[in-house]
Backbone:
Protein backbone atom coordinates (compact mmCIF):
# COMPACT_ATOMS: atom_id res chain seq x y z
CA UNK A 1 0.00 0.00 0.00
CA UNK A 2 1.31 3.47 -0.91
CA UNK A 3 0.66 4.95 2.55
CA UNK A 4 2.92 2.40 4.16
CA UNK A 5 5.72 3.02 1.65
CA UNK A 6 5.62 6.78 2.16
CA UNK A 7 5.40 6.44 5.93
CA UNK A 8 8.29 3.99 6.14
CA UNK A 9 10.50 6.04 3.85
CA UNK A 10 9.95 9.23 5.85
CA UNK A 11 10.24 7.41 9.16
CA UNK A 12 13.66 6.09 8.16
CA UNK A 13 14.79 9.62 7.39
CA UNK A 14 13.77 10.81 10.85
CA UNK A 15 15.63 8.03 12.63
CA UNK A 16 18.80 9.31 11.02
CA UNK A 17 18.15 12.65 12.75
CA UNK A 18 17.73 11.21 16.27
CA UNK A 19 21.45 11.55 17.19
CA UNK A 20 21.18 15.23 16.19
CA UNK A 21 18.47 15.95 18.82
CA UNK A 22 20.79 16.94 21.72
CA UNK A 23 22.51 19.49 19.51
CA UNK A 24 19.11 20.77 18.37
CA UNK A 25 18.15 21.56 21.96
CA UNK A 26 21.59 22.96 22.86
CA UNK A 27 21.15 25.60 20.15
CA UNK A 28 18.70 27.35 22.47
CA UNK A 29 21.70 28.27 24.66
CA UNK A 30 23.53 30.12 21.89
CA UNK A 31 23.25 33.89 22.17
CA UNK A 32 21.83 35.16 18.90
CA UNK A 33 22.64 38.60 17.52
CA UNK A 34 19.61 40.72 16.70
CA UNK A 35 21.37 42.61 13.90
CA UNK A 36 22.10 39.42 11.89
CA UNK A 37 19.30 38.28 9.60
CA UNK A 38 19.43 35.32 7.23
CA UNK A 39 17.22 34.93 4.18
CA UNK A 40 16.34 32.09 1.86
CA UNK A 41 13.84 31.02 -0.75
CA UNK A 42 12.57 27.92 -2.57
CA UNK A 43 14.46 25.37 -0.48
CA UNK A 44 17.74 27.15 -1.20
CA UNK A 45 17.41 26.71 -4.96
CA UNK A 46 16.28 30.18 -6.06
CA UNK A 47 16.75 33.88 -5.38
CA UNK A 48 13.16 35.06 -5.55
CA UNK A 49 9.87 35.93 -3.92
CA UNK A 50 9.03 38.02 -0.88
CA UNK A 51 12.20 37.11 0.99
CA UNK A 52 14.24 38.45 -1.96
CA UNK A 53 12.33 41.75 -1.93
CA UNK A 54 12.86 42.19 1.81
CA UNK A 55 16.54 41.17 1.49
CA UNK A 56 17.16 43.82 -1.15
CA UNK A 57 15.23 46.44 0.84
CA UNK A 58 17.23 45.73 4.01
CA UNK A 59 20.50 45.91 2.09
CA UNK A 60 19.52 49.22 0.52
CA UNK A 61 18.05 51.07 3.51
CA UNK A 62 19.18 49.41 6.76
CA UNK A 63 22.95 49.32 7.01
CA UNK A 64 22.81 48.44 10.70
CA UNK A 65 21.46 44.98 9.81
CA UNK A 66 23.82 42.30 8.53
CA UNK A 67 21.66 40.55 5.95
CA UNK A 68 22.84 37.24 4.52
CA UNK A 69 21.29 35.14 1.78
CA UNK A 70 21.72 31.37 2.17
CA UNK A 71 21.48 29.14 -0.88
CA UNK A 72 22.39 25.66 -1.97
CA UNK A 73 23.25 26.84 -5.50
CA UNK A 74 26.84 28.06 -6.08
CA UNK A 75 25.71 30.01 -9.17
CA UNK A 76 23.28 32.07 -7.08
CA UNK A 77 25.97 32.64 -4.47
CA UNK A 78 28.42 33.88 -7.09
CA UNK A 79 25.79 36.10 -8.71
CA UNK A 80 24.85 37.77 -5.41
CA UNK A 81 28.51 38.14 -4.38
CA UNK A 82 29.19 40.01 -7.63
CA UNK A 83 26.27 42.34 -6.84
CA UNK A 84 27.91 43.14 -3.49
CA UNK A 85 25.58 41.11 -1.26
CA UNK A 86 26.59 38.64 1.43
CA UNK A 87 25.63 35.18 0.29
CA UNK A 88 26.87 31.80 1.49
CA UNK A 89 26.19 28.18 0.67
CA UNK A 90 23.71 26.80 3.20
CA UNK A 91 25.87 23.91 4.42
CA UNK A 92 29.20 25.77 4.35
CA UNK A 93 30.98 26.66 7.58
CA UNK A 94 29.95 30.32 7.23
CA UNK A 95 26.38 29.32 6.39
CA UNK A 96 26.17 27.16 9.51
CA UNK A 97 27.80 29.77 11.77
CA UNK A 98 25.48 32.54 10.58
CA UNK A 99 22.50 30.19 10.99
CA UNK A 100 23.55 29.61 14.60
CA UNK A 101 23.99 33.29 15.51
CA UNK A 102 21.24 34.99 13.47
CA UNK A 103 18.31 36.22 15.52
CA UNK A 104 15.93 36.54 12.55
CA UNK A 105 15.34 34.04 9.76
CA UNK A 106 13.26 35.13 6.79
CA UNK A 107 11.88 32.43 4.48
CA UNK A 108 9.28 32.13 1.76
CA UNK A 109 8.56 28.39 1.40
CA UNK A 110 9.75 26.54 4.50
CA UNK A 111 12.61 26.08 6.91
CA UNK A 112 14.58 24.26 4.23
CA UNK A 113 15.00 27.64 2.48
CA UNK A 114 17.89 28.11 4.92
CA UNK A 115 19.77 25.56 7.02
CA UNK A 116 16.83 24.14 9.00
CA UNK A 117 19.08 22.15 11.34
CA UNK A 118 20.78 25.20 12.88
CA UNK A 119 17.97 27.72 13.43
CA UNK A 120 16.47 26.51 16.71
CA UNK A 121 16.13 29.55 18.95
CA UNK A 122 15.86 32.07 16.11
CA UNK A 123 12.71 33.97 15.20
CA UNK A 124 11.41 32.61 11.92
CA UNK A 125 9.37 34.90 9.68
CA UNK A 126 7.40 33.07 7.00
CA UNK A 127 6.65 35.50 4.15
CA UNK A 128 5.16 32.90 1.81
CA UNK A 129 5.75 32.88 -1.91
CA UNK A 130 2.28 32.86 -3.44
CA UNK A 131 -0.97 34.70 -3.40
CA UNK A 132 -3.03 34.52 -0.20
CA UNK A 133 -5.96 33.00 -2.08
CA UNK A 134 -4.01 29.81 -2.73
CA UNK A 135 -4.93 26.82 -0.58
CA UNK A 136 -1.61 26.07 1.06
CA UNK A 137 -0.51 22.52 0.48
CA UNK A 138 -3.62 21.57 -1.45
CA UNK A 139 -2.23 22.51 -4.85
CA UNK A 140 0.00 19.44 -4.87
CA UNK A 141 -1.46 16.60 -6.87
CA UNK A 142 0.96 13.83 -5.87
CA UNK A 143 -0.73 11.54 -3.36
CA UNK A 144 -1.75 14.49 -1.21
CA UNK A 145 -4.13 12.49 0.99
CA UNK A 146 -1.55 9.76 1.58
CA UNK A 147 1.13 12.32 2.45
CA UNK A 148 -1.20 14.11 4.88
CA UNK A 149 -1.93 10.84 6.67
CA UNK A 150 1.77 10.01 6.73
CA UNK A 151 2.53 13.46 8.21
CA UNK A 152 -0.05 13.01 10.97
CA UNK A 153 1.45 9.65 11.88
CA UNK A 154 4.99 11.06 11.93
CA UNK A 155 3.88 13.96 14.14
CA UNK A 156 2.92 11.46 16.84
CA UNK A 157 6.51 10.16 17.03
CA UNK A 158 8.65 13.15 16.06
CA UNK A 159 7.25 16.17 17.85
CA UNK A 160 10.09 18.49 16.80
CA UNK A 161 9.15 18.43 13.10
CA UNK A 162 7.48 21.83 13.27
CA UNK A 163 9.51 23.53 16.00
CA UNK A 164 9.89 26.47 16.22
CA UNK A 165 6.67 28.17 15.13
CA UNK A 166 6.63 30.86 12.47
CA UNK A 167 6.10 34.57 13.04
CA UNK A 168 3.88 36.15 10.41
Residues:
Amino acid sequence: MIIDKIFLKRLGGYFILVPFLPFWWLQKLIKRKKNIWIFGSWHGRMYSDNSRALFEYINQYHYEIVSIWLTGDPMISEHLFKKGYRCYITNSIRGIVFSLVAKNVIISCGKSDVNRFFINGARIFQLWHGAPMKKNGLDENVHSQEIKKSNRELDNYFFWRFLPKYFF
Q: What stands out?
A: The CA atoms of residues 120 and 163 lie 8 Å apart.
